[in-house]
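Retro notes (design track)

What went well: tokenization of the new backbones is finally stable.
What didn't: we kept losing track of which sequence belonged to which structure.
Fix going forward: every design gets posted as structure first, then sequence, in one message. First example under the new rule, 127 residues:
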């Protein structure tokens, strides 16, 4: 009797964990723009850097791709674009999301404590 009970408890925990994970990603109010991107910006992350740190793009919908090339967990957010966040964890982890960028200069950085200070930041120049 104790074995099925334990199995049930374990599966209940798994369900909670999954529910928790999905709610944290939908937690962000960010809405990805529809439509084809005018450009794809590829950025790599590692311990502790972004590469490249200076990017250029025409204005419009830009697809941002972050690839983690070392172990560790990083993210990429853009100042003044609420909710936009690319999160990677582990070597080879790659995520993409589109963002609508108007003409201007945008700072991006990693929100993991200490990483921005250590140099995980850069600039996207949109013209
Ligand atoms: Cu980082």
């Amino acid at each position: 009797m104790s074995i099925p009970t334990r199995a049930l408890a374990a599966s209940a925990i798994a369900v909670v964990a999954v529910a928790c994970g999905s709610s944290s990603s939908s937690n962000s109010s960010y809405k990805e723009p529809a439509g084809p991107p005018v450009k794809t910006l590829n950025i790599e992350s590692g311990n502790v850097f972004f590469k490249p740190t200076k990017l250029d793009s025409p204005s419009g919908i830009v697809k941002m791709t972050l690839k983690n090339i070392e172990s560790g967990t990083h993210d990429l957010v853009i100042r003044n674009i609420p909710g936009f966040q690319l999160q990677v964890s582990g070597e080879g982890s790659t995520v993409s999301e589109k963002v609508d960028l108007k003409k201007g200069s945008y700072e991006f950085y990693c929100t993991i404590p200490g990483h921005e200070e250590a140099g995980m930041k850069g600039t996207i120049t949109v013209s």
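Added context from the reviewer: The chain has two domains: 1-30, 39-126.
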